[in-house]
Design a protein that fits this description.
By secondary structure, this protein is of the alpha/beta class. It has two domains: 161 residues, D-Maltodextrin-Binding Protein, domain 2; 122 residues, Periplasmic binding protein-like II (D-Maltodextrin-Binding Protein, domain 2). Helices cover 46% and strands 18% of the residues. Strands 1, 2, 3, 4, 5, 6, 7, 8, 9 and 10 form a ten-stranded mixed sheet that branches. About 8% of the residues have low confidence.
Length: 330
């Protein structure tokens, strides 16, 4: 029969094992319960734009799927990077996320020496939407297609200029990429925003520009602007007669605007997986898909690995262009 000392030791061991098991189970249970409170979704743009609208539409449906409210907070500033800086400083617990696109994930990291975050350590959770950039011109310039515009530019050096919403942004760089790929010259004229650049092209200050399809669709449909090409991999449902860049012999110009959900570095894998699964379910909702499609955005979820591959691909493209143009990081 065991002595009282042996029995006491066994009881202590059992108690210790129970405590260890309880300690191990606590973080697992907390993780399983995610989310147990509202989620902040930071948006690096002001209210009313495409970034904000897509974030609010997708965020509302994601909240329904997860059973918690997703609260959108606009953190405009520093070319969209302010929202990323705040996300990096937030706890990596899945309760602070950021809704971002091409400029912040694939361009800013190569334009700034210290953008305030390392894109390689951020965790792309899932794509949310994609859409095309559209190349537009004034309808009375004497050419009816991109081939005609390129021929005109080559025959009349210095006669064409193009607008954008700022120096070294995605719209400026797309214009530079077109010049490189098609072999012509045109002067870049930056403006303060998309509305100002659209007014400039309609007023004759510039002759062409790239912009988001979602921003220009009403002007194209009303005949105030002429669409020459879209940059997506296929023609847009809203503009079925407008060819893609690939169809016009410029496959290297194929690119899309993307927006998606990104988490801070070191966010637990289980939380990332739950968010990615939630995005997949949310983006399959017919009402949400219709709302996004109506504005020219294609609902599109992805795995974290697929989103990372897209970010790396687009980043490499713009990094190469920035180097080719001799643009020095600020």
């Amino acid at each position: 029969m065991p002595s009282s000392t042996v029995i006491a030791r066994r009881r202590l061991l059992a108690a210790g094992l129970s405590t260890c098991a309880l300690g191990l189970s606590l973080p697992l249970r907390a993780q399983d319960a995610y989310p147990s409170k509202p989620i902040r979704l930071l948006v690096g743009a002001g209210a009313g734009g495409t970034t904000d609208i897509t974030a609010r539409l997708v965020g509302a449906q994601l909240g329904k799927v997860l059973g918690q409210t997703v609260v959108v907070e606009n953190k405009a500033g520093a070319a969209g990077t302010l929202s990323m800086q705040q996300t990096v400083r937030a706890p990596a617990d899945g309760y602070t996320l950021v809704w971002v696109g091409n400029s912040v994930m694939a361009i800013a990291p190569y334009l700034y020496k210290n953008p305030g975050y390392d894109v390689k350590t951020m965790i792309p959770v899932s794509l949310g939407t994609t859409s095309s950039f559209v190349l537009v011109c004034a309808p009375d310039l004497g050419f009816s297609d991109l081939k005609g515009m390129i021929a005109y530019a080559k025959a009349n050096p210095g006669k064409l200029s193009f607008g954008s919403n700022g120096v070294n942004g995605s719209l400026h760089l797309l214009g530079e990429l077109l010049k490189n790929e098609a072999g012509f010259e045109a002067l870049h004229v930056p403006f303060k925003g998309g509305a100002e650049s659209a007014n400039a092209i309609m007023g004759g200050s510039v002759q062409f520009l790239f912009d988001a399809l979602t921003s220009n669709l009403p002007l194209i449909q009303s005949g105030k602007l002429k669409a020459l090409a879209v940059t997506g991999p296929r023609r847009e449902k809203a503009l079925p007669d407008v060819p893609t860049m690939a169809e016009l012999g410029l496959p290297s110009m194929t690119t899309e605007i993307f927006f998606g959900l990104v988490a801070p570095p070191a966010t637990p894998n289980a939380v990332v997986a739950k968010l990615a699964d939630g995005m997949k379910v949310a983006l399959s909702d017919p009402a949400l898909r219709e709302s996004l499609s109506r504005s020219g955005n294609e609902p599109k979820s992805s795995t974290p690995a697929e989103f990372r591959a897209l970010v790396d691909k687009e980043g490499a493209r713009f990094q190469a262009l920035i180097k080719a143009k001799g643009i020095q990081p600020e």
